[in-house]
Predict the 3D structure of the following.
Amino acid sequence: MANDSKQPDRPPVTTVLVHGLWMSGFQLQVLRHRLEAGGQLRVLAFTYPTVSGSMSDHVRKLLDFAHAQDVAELHFVGHSLGGLVILRALQLTDDLPPGRAGVVGHAAARIEGGAGRRAHSSVRQSDFSVRR
């Protein structure tokens, strides 16, 4: 028997790109186009003024942006400072749609010594699932 109830039309999977320090989001356009090329992802760019405002301001704005998305799945990809903004935002909320977060060019990679390398390795290898 077919299910006659209709689900609202909404993109099944959305990824939010978050740029790093001194960037405007334009730098992530190539990545955006590559992710969208398969036709299964909707990719949005979140931009914020990296050299003004506080980390708390950036995190709050990202959470507001994320909560405004009406999607079944919500993923995040951040570059450098953008990755830190994402990770902090995910620490502060538990009411986003399920998804994952990934960071590239993370600040921990620049820390000298073994501790920095271990921290960076754990960031790259960790699965930041937000599944419920």
Q: What stands out?
A: Strands lie at 14-18, 42-46, 74-79, 101-104. Residues 1-6, 111-132 have pLDDT under 50 and may be disordered.
